[in-house]
Amino acid sequence: MIGFQNLIGISGVRRKPAVMNSEDSCGTLTWLPVSNFSARCRYIILKKGLNIKIEEPINGMKSPEHLAISPLGQVPCFQMDNGDSMIESMAIMDYLVDRYSDVPPRFLPATPELRAKARMICQVHDLHCGINQGAMYRAMTSPEDREAGLEKIRKGLDVIELYCEASPFMVGDDLSIADVAVFASSAFYVFMLPRFFGWDFRDGRPKLAKWFVYMRQ
């Protein structure tokens, strides 16, 4: 995935100059380049310039070492320096945004209404697009099952288009968790959908198309 992440600039996000001294290390993110859910957490860390280690699972995701910090054997996983760990990308994103809210960019819109809208877009994406993304690349029991999964992705994207403000970000003037969640997954949409299924996630969605151009800058 790292190759087609380059198409949108996800893999090329550079770490902002560190805002903390090296002795202020604040944990480790375990990720894989093929994981869009990992990529969203990595994006926040790099954009904020946090002194957080980013590494791949030790001896694989099903190894005893990884299962000790990620009981489901998945990525991403975030381990704090005190030994506590957390799983699930939205929980990790929420933690990073809350814990380092004083470090720009904040990734949180200015008002409760906009913050709720950003969280809503994240959930729409994850519960309708993200949960069905396997339809783009996994073996399926039938063509009908694959098409059903792709249709759910289409509907999720249509709802995101409805709520996207593209002014220039998803929910206004500032980068938010909504932008990160959708942008990290757009590598799949840009690479897989036109090549294998003949449609582009931006077709018929002018606000998402405008937003995507801005996010790639």
Explained architecture:
By secondary structure, the chain is mainly alpha-helical. It folds into two domains: about 1-100, Glutaredoxin (3-Layer(aba) Sandwich), CATH 3.40.30; about 110-215, Glutathione S-transferase Yfyf (Class Pi), Chain A, domain 2 (Up-down Bundle). The chain is built from eight helices and four strands, in the order H-E-H-E-H-E-E-H-H-H-H-H. The chain has helices at about 1-5, 35-50, 65, 90-100, 110-130, 145-165, 175-195, 205-215, and strands spanning about 30, 55, 75-80, 85. Strands 2-1-3-4 form a four-stranded mixed beta sheet, with helices on one face. A hairpin with a 5-residue loop joins strand 3 and strand 4. Helix 2 (about 35-50) crosses helix 7 (about 175-195), helix 5 runs antiparallel to helix 6 (about 145-165) and helix 5 (about 110-130) runs parallel beside helix 7. The longest helix is centred in the last third of the chain and has 21 residues, at about 145-165. The radius of gyration is 17 Å and the shape is globular. The two termini are about 20 Å apart.
